């Protein structure tokens, strides 16, 4: 039966949740509405701003996740702000109307919803307006940021231009003042070809109403907010977005929620003030210490490197200063993660990293600089090749041009694609694995020829 696993999981829940579902003619899960008692309580406390995130699975079914948002919400933990899960039978006006009506039926506080945040691809706005007539519907800052990131990658811009745009976007999202938004708008107008500029909808940056719903956050709060939503989106995609079976995807997601429900305790005891944090084992570095370490790194870069080399590395350091980084030590290598990009650093001299910047230019990249900053170390002369050391008169253009390699470019692109495909194959069901493997098998044979077997 389609819901056997889901029902077994719900039996384990000590507080019976709301579960409404609809089966298709083939006894497959066609529509679903789910809300635990805890989720219902969270929404009752924070109904003013509703954030809607959509996740599609390989078969086109969409999971709507409703989350609470706004200045009063200080819940910690992955999906702690999620208050409702729904899968409409069809993503049309009728299907969404049924979904929203079910949500309203079990959540009387819906009448206090003032703002609803959605993604740019959400087109059924009349359905929202019909069911929430007093609420204002706005694009969310998070979804706009993800939209711009996706467009930057799709446009196949030159790598330096892409890096500048991504860095500027991240900085602006963490400090969405009118001036910063105008600067980003101008930068897009300058860097993006005029024919492609309309695809970006850069006018969103000048819509002050959108950013008023986000601007109250400080830089640190904005960074924490975006990272939290990034993790939430990743979890939803990992469990629901990669699984063709709706019931299996929801079962995995709900099991994850049960196993990671640490946020319930803090909520039931009352919310902590925004500035209060539980004590941790490791005390964070004070801002003065961090600034001193970064200043020493800058000094060592300027003292050891040529001007062009220092210019490139200081650009990498600027990204480090504006980012949150996670550092995990292994036996021989150090794993550095800045936002979504994870690379492996070899700390032994000469230091190296798996990222494109280090592989192409053999210069200390943001990941190596993060390692130095965390260890309170500075750059050493033996960490970079001779042509980059101070005293060499080569210009930036000469060195960058000489270091570019089409073969390396292709090698890194293939390596990244191979790793991504490998991850997808490892984390899918056996049925999906066989289907994807068969597709790859046919593609490989079509390239090599029908008479040769290609080892995948």
Automatic annotation (TrEMBL):
<dbReference type="Pfam" id="PF21600">
    <property type="entry name" value="ZSWIM1-3_helical"/>
</dbReference>
<keyword id="KW-0479">Metal-binding</keyword>
<dbReference type="GO" id="GO:0005634">
    <property type="term" value="C:nucleus"/>
</dbReference>
<feature type="region of interest" description="Disordered">
    <location>
        <begin position="267"/>
        <end position="288"/>
    </location>
</feature>
<dbReference type="Pfam" id="PF19286">
    <property type="entry name" value="ZSWIM1-3_C"/>
</dbReference>
<keyword id="KW-0863">Zinc-finger</keyword>
<keyword id="KW-0862">Zinc</keyword>
<dbReference type="Pfam" id="PF21056">
    <property type="entry name" value="ZSWIM1-3_RNaseH-like"/>
</dbReference>
<dbReference type="InterPro" id="IPR052579">
    <property type="entry name" value="Zinc_finger_SWIM"/>
</dbReference>
<protein>
    <submittedName>
        <fullName>Zinc finger SWIM domain-containing protein 1</fullName>
    </submittedName>
</protein>
<dbReference type="InterPro" id="IPR048326">
    <property type="entry name" value="ZSWIM1-3_helical"/>
</dbReference>
<feature type="domain" description="SWIM-type">
    <location>
        <begin position="334"/>
        <end position="376"/>
    </location>
</feature>
<dbReference type="InterPro" id="IPR048324">
    <property type="entry name" value="ZSWIM1-3_RNaseH-like"/>
</dbReference>
<dbReference type="InterPro" id="IPR045563">
    <property type="entry name" value="ZSWIM1/3_C"/>
</dbReference>
<dbReference type="Pfam" id="PF04434">
    <property type="entry name" value="SWIM"/>
</dbReference>
<dbReference type="InterPro" id="IPR007527">
    <property type="entry name" value="Znf_SWIM"/>
</dbReference>
<dbReference type="GO" id="GO:0008270">
    <property type="term" value="F:zinc ion binding"/>
</dbReference>
